[in-house]
Amino acid sequence: MAKAADTAGTFLLCEMEMEEGKATPLHTHPADETLVVLEGELVLHLDGEEHRIGTGGVAIAPAGVPHAFLVSSGPARMLCLHTPGGCEAFYLGASDPIDAATTTGVVDFDRVATSARENGGIELLGPPPFAN
Questions:
Q1: 3-state DSSP call for residue 113?
Q2: β-strand 58-61 against 32-46: which pairing, if any?
Q3: d(Cα 49, Cα 67) in Å, to the nearest integer?
């Protein structure tokens, strides 16, 4: 992880690993978000349209544009780049770092909402916009 404090606030870079079926709520944030898919496939819901991004693909969610993603084949690993940095406190409050002995679990949307409210860096607009 390259924290915002490490980059003078210019960016936050972290690696994420998620199981198939993991989805984020529909949200916006004040930073551009770039996702580089290292393994697996995502469906990105961006401003009302859905896009599939596979291994080696790159997706950009510009600041302020409503978006969400769903891991459609997993596990998926990706690099997540926020420019500028600034939503690190949200991520740390919304989830726990994993290690080789840990698997990802069900998303705790109450914890995500609490972290957004307490730490800022993201505005939740609604539930994941994907069909069940």
A1: helix
A2: antiparallel
A3: 9
* pTM beyond 0.90, yes or no: no
Q: What are 71-99's pLDDT values in tens digits?
A: 999 789 999 999 998 787 887 788 776 66
- C-alpha 104/C-alpha 127 separation (Å) is 19
On whether the CB atoms of residues 26 and 128 are closer than 8 A, the answer is yes
CA distances from 120 to 25, 79, 108, 110, 111 (A): 15, 21, 17, 15, 13
pLDDT tens-place string over residues 39-72: 999 999 999 999 999 999 999 999 999 999 999 9
Rounded to whole angstroms, how far apart are CA atoms 2 and 10? 10
- Terminal C-alpha separation, the chain: 32
* Residue of 14, 21, 1, 13 lying closest to 107 (CA atoms): 21
Q: What residue type is 9 in one-letter code?
A: G
Angle, CA of 56, 61 and 62, to the nearest 5°: 135
Count, in order, helices (H) and strands (E) of the chain.
Answer: 2, 7
